[in-house]
Amino acid sequence: MGCLFFPKLLENTMLEETNFKSLCQKFIKKEFLNINKGFHRFYCVYSDGRFPEEDLINNLTTGRNPNARPSMDPLQAINISLTLSLNSIVNVNEVTGTLTTRITLQIRWLDFSLAWNISTFKGISKIQMKTSDVWTPDLVIFNSLTSSPLDKENSVTNNGFVSWTPNFLLDTSCKISVAKFPFDSQICEIQVGPWFHDTNSQYITNGNINSMKLSVNGVWDLTGTNYTSFVLAQAYQASVFKLFLSRRPSYDILHMFCPVILLSVMNLFVFLMPYSSGEKISFCLSIFLTFSVLLASLKAELPVTSLEMPYFGIFVFFQFCLGGIESCVSVLILRLSCRPERDKIPKYLRNVCSFLCLIPAQNHASAVSPIEDSKYVLASHEDKVQSTSENYSNKKDNNDTNNDIKNINQTYELSWDDIASGMDKLCFFVFTGIKSISYRILYSILLMFQAFEDDQSVSGNVLKG
């Protein structure tokens, strides 16, 4: 036995068997005395065999019904204080209209039956108790989309104040307004109140929102908070915590605004491309398909609703329609340039191109007959010579007049390519004007939104203060 417990001792000491037995007895006796002294010290501190906090909890919970309100007067309501600590804004889903946040509710009330004397329980001033052992207020989150039970431990102080601080990930419904996307602001609410008890049983006296520990969100910025409380007709109370959120538009400007404006401007240059390149139609269709992709990506980020449309979405759809019209007009103009020369050019096309100065000046003569045009130019030239050229000889005037008549008779015949080039020039100026007006309207709307955001930011700071 001794060899099993003390093998090293036998290896290092050459003792007789009797000496070894006496040595083992002394060693065991010494260790037993040390263990006994330690247990004696432990037992002296807790003479009754139980911890002081255990005695305190047993004293507070013995014979107590946690379902009963801690009030001596049945008509007196329990006053409750609410504080919502906003830890982080996880997500704002515009499609489903939900707000995901990480919050901590700090609920405080006074329970006289949980008060104790500190000196009686060895200086203990604060303990932790389960919610099943004490009375807790009847509180639910009305607009919560997930069932998150408020089941956490309570902190109880010696003067009877109870603090209940549940922490959880909360999904609440939020009405999303996307008319000003991506410069929109949202007002989301977290509605807290009793489900069964009215104001005669419990009453929320005050509430506030604490956002000091709020982590930064890359998409949304908290511009302000507000707390309101109201009583319904059935004497049920509701507390509303309002969060004023403003979108950070940098990402959407870079990935949506700039590409749309760039594609819209590029689409105008289809009217400046020469027909010989053979890329006019492919250029139009490529930009048209790119607009389709942008509309699809915009649809994925906006709620599926017909009640409200974002102004930016309307702008993109308008540019999309202009791109389609430009493609159709380019096809028609290309069809004009490909018509055979034997086809007669309609008179209205000649007149329109002449009136808008879309063809060269020497081409205007083809719009009228050569005889009438020669008479008109001859008469005007003779009048000009009589009024301004008195020092020139009649022979030189007659020679100049004859040369002018010969040049006019050699009229330039308009071709379908000239008509197509003139229509391209006309369409370029028309669509440039339309798009310039649309850009100006969009810019005015953005300025209006920016002014609104500044006003709301100021009001939000006031609410925070």
UniProtKB/TrEMBL annotation:
Its main location: membrane. The keyword Ribonucleoprotein does not apply. It comes from the Eukaryota. Residues 53-248 form the Neurotransmitter-gated ion-channel ligand-binding domain. Residues 258-406 form the Neurotransmitter-gated ion-channel transmembrane domain. Keywords: Ion channel, Ion transport, Membrane, Transmembrane, Transmembrane helix, Transport. It is found in: Membrane. PROSITE patterns: NEUROTR_ION_CHANNEL. The chain crosses the membrane at residues 253-274, 281-298, 310-334. The keyword Membrane applies. It is a multi-pass membrane protein. PANTHER family: NEUROTRANSMITTER GATED ION CHANNEL. Belongs to the ligand-gated ion channel (TC 1.A.9) family. This is Uncharacterized protein. It comes from Tegillarca granosa (Malaysian cockle).
